Fold:
Amino acid sequence: MARKTMAAVLHGREDVRIEEIAVDEPGPGEVLLRIEAALTCGTDAKVFRRGYHARMIVPPAVFGHEAAGVIEAAGEGVVGFAPGDPVVMANSAPCGFCEYCQTGRASLCEDLLFWNGAYAELTIIPERIVQKNLLHRPPNVQAHEAALIEPLACAIHGLDECVIRKGDSVAVIGAGPLGLMLLVLARKQGLSVVVAGRSLDGLERAKALGAHEVVSKRHGDLGSQLRAISPGRQGFSLVIEAIGTSETIEAALSVVRKGGQINLFGGSAAGTTASLDVERAHYQENRLFGTFHHTPETIRRALELVAAGAVNPNEFIEGEEPLRALPRVLKEMTQRKRKMKTIIRP
Ligand SMILES: [Zn+2]
Ligand SMILES: [Zn+2]
Structure:
């Protein structure tokens, strides 16, 4: 007998409808999850604006990828999880077999399996995610707090890939939830961090979360403002770009100091390019690299940080709305009226 669930269904550009859809019983290895809370994400707002996601979502489709809840039913052969268990999962799982998985680089898996469907009452979690990235939720972690582990794990992975030396100065470009998570994690490593961005609310939060200084795009060019406040005006030893536009990437490239690194953390639209002063990059021995997504290991560390109270998910959240309000919430995100995450309750 198929069950029914209310779910947000993406039909096309700026066309999301809350509908009743059928949800199957969990198959072998799968879990049926009753979602308690989902979190909005900038990626969802992009998907809403474009009407699809090249890698993950072809309409009509359910979407949303940050959620936590309670197991409603477990399929045949599921070990370690039973109905009633509070859980949280990542939105993907690597294959474990490809060359990247075998060499410890699971975020680059050739066959990353994605799950979408956080904006619903019920959702099926695929077998591979159950096996690799479904975690029991400690009793002190609420569902909406646990749902933050997906983006937090991306930020952990992004910082793991940086070579950090004592006394490094850090600039984070981007004052959205991920920019702020990168700030918090870098501060935990004892680094001095400045944050550059547009959102005044985001920059206010950055100050409260320990940013040494903040600079706003409203006051002029980010690159020159950042250079002016860098140690000795020499630039920063680590620049993390968490927006992904040509302009902000070029600002990042312009404020890296001798021997410094630039991490292209923000997801760019297809076709985005940026010009690089190659001569400077060579003689300065700069490292330029990208980081993407998370791994089963960083997902686990993210949950540990939240459970231990070392990262407070509520710092990146700005309110709560019922599922039926999702189309309006997404619209407000595209209009930049909502910059932090919103809890969506089914
Ligand atoms: Zn996300
Ligand atoms: Zn793989």
Q: What stands out?
A: The first strand starts at residue 3 and ends at 12. The CA atoms of residues 180 and 206 lie 6 Å apart. The pocket of zinc ion (ligand 1) is lined by residues 41, 43, 65-66, 150-151 (CB under 6 Å). DSSP finds twelve helices and 18 strands in the chain.
